[in-house]
Amino acid sequence: MEKRETLEEKFQRLEKKISQASFQNNAGLSNEVGYYIFAYNPHEEMQVRERINYLKANPIGNLNIQVFNIFDIVLDYINQFHYQKPLMQMELAHGLTEVIVQINNILEMDEDNNIIVKYINNHLADSKSVIFLTGIGQIYPILRAHKILNTMTQIIDEYPVVMFYPGSYDGLSLKAFGKVEDSNYYRAFSI
C-alpha cells in the first residue's frame, strides 16, 4: 500500500521546486508553459492558506511570490460595478446556472485576455516572480479551474504559475473537492 504524502511533505517539495532556477525561468519544459497544480485535501484549506501567507512573507532567495485570490478578484470586480444586487435577483428568479453564465459573460471568460488575466497582468511585479493562484474552491462552481488556466496560458507565460487546487489532479483531469469532475486539463504539471 502506497503511503499518502502529507501536506507538510507537499509544501517541502513545493519550496524545493520553486527555489530552483530552472523553475523560476520556466526552463526544461519542452516549450510548455510553467503551470503547476498543487492539489490538496479540501479539509486542509486553512493550513494551506497559512502556509501560503508564510511563504509570501518569507520569500526564498530573491523570489517574489505574488498571490492572487481568484474569488477576491471576482468579488471586487462585481462590487466595483455594483453587479451584486442584480445577480442576487437573477439567482432568485432564474437560479444559479443563469448567474454562472452571466458572471462568466461579465468577466469575459471566453476571451483570452479576460478580466482575471487583465487584473493579474496589471498587478505583476517586474522582478523575478512566481504566481500563486488561490480561492479556487471559494469561486467554484461559478468559475472552473481549467477555464482559468486555459485563458491564462494564452497571455501569462513568462512567470511560473502554481494553482492551489482543493481536490485532486492526476495529470489529466481535475476533480474539485476530490469528487466533482471539473474537466480535463493537460497543460499543467502536478507539484
Describe the structure.
This protein is an alpha/beta fold. It is built from 9 helices and 7 strands. It has helices at residues 7-18, 21-24, 45-57, 70-80, 84-94, 96-106, 115-122, 136-139, 145-152; strands at residues 35-40, 64-69, 129-134, 161-169, 173-176, 180-184, 189-190. Strands 1, 2, 3, 4, 5, 6 and 7 form a 7-stranded mixed beta sheet that branches. Helix 5 runs antiparallel to helix 6 (96-106). The protein is globular.
Short description:
The protein is of the alpha/beta class and 191 residues long.
Descriptive labels:
single chain, 191 residues, alpha/beta, 7-stranded mixed β-sheet
| SSE topology string | HHEHEHHHHEHHEEEE
Note the main sheet. Answer: 7 strands, mixed
Class computed from helices, strands and strand pairing:
alpha/beta
Q: Globular, elongated, flat, extended or rod-shaped: what is the shape?
A: globular
- Rounded to the nearest angstrom, the radius of gyration is 17 Å
**Annotation field: number of helices:** 9
Average pLDDT for all residues: 87
Question: What's the total count of β strands?
Answer: 7
Can you tell me the residue ranges where pLDDT is under 50 for at least 5 consecutive residues?
none
The amount of beta strand, in percent, is 15-25%
Question: How many angstroms does the end-to-end distance come to?
Answer: 21 Å
Helix content: 40-55%
Write the layout of secondary structure elements.
Blueprint lengths: L6 H12 L2 H4 L10 E6 L4 H13 L6 E6 H11 L3 H11 L1 H11 L8 H8 L6 E6 L1 H4 L5 H8 L8 E9 L3 E4 L3 E5 L4 E2 L1
Parallel strand pairs: 1-4, 1-7, 2-3, 3-4
Antiparallel strand pairs: 4-5, 5-6
Helix pairs in contact: 5-6
